[in-house]
Amino acid sequence: MTKITNIIFCGINGRMGQAVEELISEKENFRIVAGVDVNTTRRGDYPVYKNISDVKEKADVIVDFSFHAAIGSYLEYAKAQRLPIVVSTTGHTPEETALMHEYSKFIPVFFSRNMSLGINLLIELAKKAAVMLGDDFDIEIIEAHHNKKLDAPSGTALMIADAISETLENKPEYVYDRSERRQERPKNEIGIHAVRAGGIVGEHSVLFGAKNESVTISHSAYSRSVFALGALRAAEFMVGMPAGMYSMSDLIGEMN
Fold it and tell me: Which entry of 127, 145, 193, 204 is annotated as an active-site residue?
């Protein structure tokens, strides 16, 4: 008998909610039992609530693809109901990120700024490249997204920069705009650049540039279904896990 993972989905009427619904329609082991959204329009055979505190349906896990500022109420509900939560939203403030870590003392919290398995492979490759190439190579990160995306640079670009930074002996400075700088590029720097145009789903490149050669590692998402698949795998992974902070590294490690 197929085990079904029952999900409360926050942000159900957004783009990612639609992508997850479409993917679930092709699978037998996932079910949305309730949605949460400021737009309470119903598309499926489940209720949609404006506030998560109104949800009465029983679930195994919460998946959040809504707006970062709502994370406090979702964490509080997850704690009250003793549910794991998969946080897939970007743009969190340092205070909101700290709140996730605080609640992870009581419930399992999965947090990733990008749910794509491919992006997380890019991150692992970029970390290895940074170590191997060393100080002779400058590092630049370029990301491109659709013109409706609110935050810039993307959470994924920052996630890539943070991962690379962890491998470097000296903590680099992140530079987002050089328009007012009249100086040579210092070594202790990672440039991060954002492009917003049309309907680009998501593109990220890491450029390592030296005097006589350059290396580029890149990833392109052609459909939001790559993020939907990652979120569902994370939701399934989190059911039954003990309290703590989890990431895509934990999920990928479990898959190996």
Answer: 145
